[in-house]
Amino acid sequence: MHLVVCAKQIPDPETPPAAFRIDSAKNEVIPAQGIAPVLSPFDAQAAEAALRIKEKDGSGKVTVISLGQESAQAAIKQVLAMGADEGVLLSDDAFQGGDSYATAHALAAAIKKLGDVDAVFCGRQAADWDMGQVGIGIAEELGWPVAIIAKDAQADGGAMVVQRVLADGFETVKMPLPAVVTVSNELGDPRYPKLQQIMQAARKTVTTWGPGDLGLDAGEIGAAGSRLKLEKLFQPEAGGEVELMEGETPAEQAQALAKALRDAKII
Questions:
Q1: Beta strands in 1-157 (DSSP E)
Q2: How many CA atoms lie within 13 A of 144 on its CB side?
Q3: Sign (positive/negative) of CA torsion 214, 218, 223, 229?
Q4: Mean pLDDT of the chain
Q5: Cβ burial 101-127 (10 Å sphere, 16+ → b, else e)
Q6: pLDDT tens for residues 13-34?
Q7: For residue 77, what is the enclosing H or E element?
Q8: CB–CB of 70/91 below 8 Å?
Q9: pLDDT of residue 59
């Protein structure tokens, strides 16, 4: 089987909010200084799902694809260190600034170029914008079935059996291949590469494709091909009011608090 993992490099979710800055003129986040971007955690779990299938099958290939700047090679190398076989980076100025539609369009074109793909695995959503639309968009572009928010995925001959997470339980679905699966954190922790695997991945060459390699026009990708317009990007103002409860004893202060909550119709 040939399995594809879509991986995105994002700002480190552990970055303190105070370290972020917004360029309001460009509607862009200014990267925090001294904190390296990371692979989106949901995409690491998508890679884990694909690698489990490869290992159970005993053969096959896993290709990881990322769309971004040259720095996104680090995210690709992380998945290669986990056990993926090949890496492809979609990198060109024309790809930048795209919304979920433009991103899915470019990734689907790359998957078509690979030509022999049996299944695509994406994170349930990117851990920066939390849109959760790219995996579904890829499936729509390719005309393949899709199962979202998966906690488990198993290949079954020419089909994929997926256990999905619902609001009130789980659902098992079976869909024919080729197909797309978006993976959730309920899958479990992704494997941590050993030092030798990290060193081997560092020596692997990542293939870079531009729009021309995919047969795409600059007007249908990136900011030019986006369907969503970002009107405003800003940091919410944090604030609050404090009211001290008066009283000579803790019991009197507790009574004053209870009265204030009743007056506010909270209790």
A1: 2-6, 9-10, 21-23, 28-30, 38-39, 61-67, 86-90, 119-123, 146-156
A2: 27
A3: negative
A4: 94
A5: bbbbbbbbbbbeeeeebbbbbbbbbbb
A6: 888 878 888 888 888 888 888 8
A7: helix 73-82
A8: yes
A9: 86
Query: Structure tokens of 190?
Result: 């992704």
* 110 dihedral zone (left: phi>0; alpha: psi -120 to 50; beta): alpha
**Cis upstream peptide for 178 (omega within 30°):** yes
User: Residue 32 corresponds to which tokens in the numbers above?
Assistant: 């925090």
Comparison of pLDDT for 140 and 238, the residue scoring more? 140
Find out whether 29 and 20 touch, Cβ atoms under 8 Å: yes
pLDDT of 239: 77
pLDDT at res. 91: 96
Q: Where in the chain is the domain with CATH 3.40.50.620?
A: 2-225
Q: Which CATH number is 2-225 given?
A: 3.40.50.620
Three-state secondary structure call for residue 227: coil
The yes-or-no verdict on residue 58 having pLDDT over 90 is no
